[in-house]
Amino acid sequence: MSGISRRSWLKKASIGSGLAAFGATGIVNSLSAEEIRKFNPRTIDGPIRMGSNENPYGPSESMRKAMVNGFDNGCRYPWGYNAELVKMIAEKEGVPEDHIVLVAGSTEGLKIAGITFGGGGEIISCTPTFLTMMSYAELWNTGINWVPLNKDLDFDLEEIEKRVSYKTKMVFLCNPNNPTGKLLPADQVFDFCKTVSKQAVVFSDEAYYDYITEPNYPSMVELVKLGYDVIVSRTFSKVYGLAGVRMGYLIARPELANLLSDRVVANTNIMAIEASKAALKDKEFYQFSLQKTKEAKAMLTKTLDDLKLPYLNSHANFIFFQSGRDIKEFNKTMLAKGFIVGRPFEPLNDWCRISTGTIEEVALYNKAIQEILG
Known about the structure:
alpha/beta; two-stranded parallel ribbon; 42% helix; globular
């Protein structure tokens, strides 16, 4: 679906008609297939998914066409088709091609980095955050040194730096952080990575970097360019809407990139390669996704303000708010209303992470949460 046709579709599918179709009970399964299509670009066969930080508008029409056109090469192994995508990514990031490692979603990148550099020692990170690296590294006998988020629910960089020792092989940062959506001060995180990377590899997970609204906020790719032991991960799963296709990449100096490449497990696939190349060219869909995320977040925070519920300023495609209810029970209540919301993030057990859906889905969600917490 192109940006132009998508805009036409959104005009036809008004929030008002979506709410009317939703009815008093709020049960998605009560909608007819025709009614469902009025507020969602695809058929819904279950609850509305607002718990995994997906981009519900993707893949774009150009990405879909690229995947279909790639079918003829589906009989071929993918490594002969990576070069053009690697070149495009390298140009985008401003680094040589030998700094790029393609992975099957940034999740694979986090896992292989954890076992490559964490084995035989420890990884330091804050909690709560995105757990994939640490959970996987623990399976390979890596120790995890957990630091609580500070009182402002930010990564406690000062405490992390204090804990770095001869045992520390890697430090993991998620910035913007998942689940909080918060962004570390630019100068603070830049100086931290420069200093700590002289003692241990620093991994900067920047899955949500595209959503940052602070002007001129630096990526830690700038430190990679200067030769520091910093690894940055990026993904096509979020703003590009390719979560189900599985494509991501790591950026690191060549010596680190080679070590990571040797440990890639899944490789990628022809359809993911073609979709990702199309994604990098589709500037209209990129801007469309950012705009719709901005609108959806404004709708969510307006309702949270009306309900007087605390929430954090988010630089991602989700909002983290304090529901005042145990998250497991809240999740059950929301599921009964037809919505999947974020999982528990201990110890913040009365907080909920809500992902941005389509504009119509968010309107329906707002109606449901007002019925529950209003």
